[in-house]
Amino acid sequence: MAIDSKLVKELREMTGAGILDCKNALESSNGDMNGAIEYLKKRNQAAVVKKMSREAKDGKIASYIHGDGRIGVLVEINSETDFVARSEGFQDFVKEVMLQITSMNPKYLKPEDIPEADMAAQKDIFMGQMEDVKKPEEVKAKIIEGKMAKWFTEVCLLEQPYIRDDSKKVKDLLTEVVGRCGENIRVRRFMRFELGEGL
Questions:
Q1: CA 71, 77, 83, 84 torsion: positive or negative?
Q2: What does the alpha-carbon distance between residue 89 and residue 98 come to, in Å, rounded to a whole number?
Q3: What is the value of pTM for the model shown?
Q4: I need a labelling partner for 74 at 20 to 30 A (CA). Which of 35, 44, 130, 189 fits?
Q5: 199 is a domain residue
């Protein structure tokens, strides 16, 4: 099937994928835009998995001050090369991550970073909420598991719904940027300060 170049251009603008990748995606989905996007997502995931094993030592430390100096964010995001760290796509991603942190106040980067004590304390809270629930223990365990997963989306940056499009998580945004930049990119660490916090 011959693919219209306008469709290729439109898909490229929507996804940031290469022209040949967009053409192949449209051909494999018989010109269906949604099918082509799914095709690219699957391909992107495979490429990202390969790239994630590569070392990312370059990148940028950036800061953002919000609300007339009431909130400050400091973040380190790594890339494999300085070339990518200076690219517009990378810079835009850094800004989006800082806005996400400012707005949603995550405590951790990902679930694996949550200290055992914090994880156990949260699980105890959920178990306490289930004490009076008249359900079998295995059902209660599943409910607690679901509550923990929801809690991760509140406290872990990469698990949070993206503030500009809650149909995807921050980690999905990261995957898209890795796919566009062609390098391993990772959010290494962050710190958020709020005026008067902890007083």
A1: negative
A2: 14
A3: 0.72
A4: 44
A5: no
Number of domains in the chain: 3
Whether residues 80 and 165 share a domain: the answer is yes
102 and 162, same domain (yes or no): yes
Domain that holds residue 120: 115-155
* Domain presence at residue 133: yes
Question: What is the rounded CA–CA span in Å between residue 138 and residue 136?
Answer: 6
User: In this structure, which amino acid lies at residue 94?
Assistant: V
> Whose structure tokens read 């290469």?
18
Question: What is the torsional sign of CA 195, 66, 158, 83?
Answer: negative
Strands (E) located in 1-137: 58-66, 71-79
Return d(Cα 76, Cα 85) in angstroms, integer: 11
Are 45 and 68 contained in the same domain? no
Q: What is the pLDDT of residues 111-155, one digit of tens each?
A: 999 999 999 999 999 988 888 888 888 888 899 999 999 999 999
Residues pairing with 147 in the sheet: none
Spatial CA neighbour of 99 closest among 23, 163, 178, 180: 163
